[in-house]
Structure formats: C-alpha cells, structure tokens
Amino acid sequence: MPITDVSPGVRLAYDTFGDPADPPVLLVMGFGAQLIAWHEDFCRALAERGRYVIRYDNRDCGLSTKFDEHPVDMGRFVAAVSSGDFPTALAMAPYRLDDMAADGLNLLTALGIDRAHVVGASMGGMIAQAMAIAHPERVLTLTSMMSSTGESEYGRSTPEAQAALLAPRPTDREGYIASADTGLTWASRRYADAAGLRELAAQSYDRAHCPAGTGRQLAAMILSGSRADALRELKVPTLVIHGLDDTLITPDGGERTAALIPGAQLLLLPDMGHDRPRELWPELVGALAAHTV
Questions:
Q1: Which range marks the domain in which residue 39 is found?
Q2: Is position 199 within any domain?
Q3: Cβ neighbours of residue 290 under 8 Å, at least 6 residues apart?
Q4: Domain count along the chain
Q5: Is the pLDDT assigned to residue 42 strictly greater than 90?
Q6: Contact of 37 with 120, CB cutoff 8 Å
Q7: What is the pTM of this model?
C-alpha cells in the first residue's frame, strides 16, 4: 500500500480505485477507523460509476504517522474539559481537526490533484467540512455523512452510545474482536451486522492496532469547536447524509449541518444508523454519483 509524505513529520497511507482520469473523490474516515472501514466493494461500486476513488488513513490511525511522543491521559483530559480547564486540555492535544484537514488536502497535492469531491463520514465529515472551509477552491463538492457542526447542542450521542464509544476495549486480539459488538449500539436496527463488525475489527487489529491514537483524535474533535459561523458562509455544493437510526451522532446533527450550509441537500435515510449497511449501498452510491458530477 502506498505511503507518502504530506507535510514535515506526517506520512499518510492510501489506496485508490478506478481511472485517474475520472473525477477524483476523496473518502475521509472517522474516529479511530482505518481506511478499510470504507469497504473495498463500496469503493469499487463508486469507481464503476466513473469516479477515481481515494481512501486514506488519518494521522494516528492505520499505517499513517502516529504521534506517540504526545501521549494523552484520557482521564486527565476528560476531567480538564469537564471542569472547564481548557488551557490544560489544549496543552495535552498535539493537533486539531484543521491539521487533519490539511493532511487530506496535502495528500491530494502529493497525488497531483488540484480539486476533488470530498466525502467524509462521522469525524471524517467534520474533517471534510474543515477542508471546504479552509480551502473551498480545492473542494468541488462536499458530502458530510453521519456528522455534525461542532456545536455541542446538536448531534449529541445517546448515553448508551457514548458509554459504548468511550468504554476501553480489550488489548488482546480475541477480546478486541468480541468487543466490536458494541457497535450494534448505534448500528442500523434493521440491517445490523455483528459478523461484519467483528470481521472489520479483526482486519483492523491485524493491520495496525493503535489504541493510543484514538485519544488524540478524540481530543482534536472536542477541542476544535463549532464550525457554525464558517458553514453559514460556505459556498461549496453540499450533500448531507444521515441515518435516522443513528444514536452516536443523532440525526439533528445532519439536519443542523444542512440548515447552516447555503443550498445544501439533505438526505435522511431510514434503516441507517451510524454505519453504511450493504443493503443501502445502491442508494448511497447513487446519491454520491449524482452529487459528484
């Protein structure tokens, strides 16, 4: 798998699908998830619709650069945020979502791509929004999927989903794979796929297990703040996709995103949670193909 320098001290792993002559679509993955969370078959389906699909590992995930020299004590970090001691929290986090957004744009530059359609899921949607805000001239279209605006009152997790997300996962392979079932907490109620969750967990563990990186990514999300004012001024054609079953980032996060961005389209999908069930791929791929013309 190719790995390329995107800035001093940061290298990103990526792969591609389709013809480089076709319109490029950059897929940005979410919190703690490697590029393989964009399933190969999903990427191929989009490439078959005439798109050049690029997926990559964010920093601190997969095969990309790890910031292990900046350990984050999550207990201290959460305590600092909860008490309003933001200077302490800020000092603990080595980067923000804007830095992760710059990584994705720098990857495009390294690949010789000036402008691309950008599709982000969950935290990846937040990163994609940050790309479009910082450099709208490089984003042909934006798709924000199962994401939110950074405003604390929108897209809040249910208590059950938040507890499942933040619960420490076992460090051994067998335990880690079994714990993937926690993803059922926010999955599609109709199409929940425990076997698929465990398969992805096994692949992720074997490919590059990096639990410390998730703490730094979480800090980046929490400390990056609201994008509401910037989204109100955004002039990039935008599609917002959200599942009505989502309990990790509730649907009002997507609704708020679409309400803020001028002219944004909103696609609310029944039977989709904080996941992309294979049964809904035809609709998802169709929506992305129509938006990324």
A1: 3-169+211-291
A2: no
A3: none
A4: 1
A5: yes
A6: no
A7: 0.96
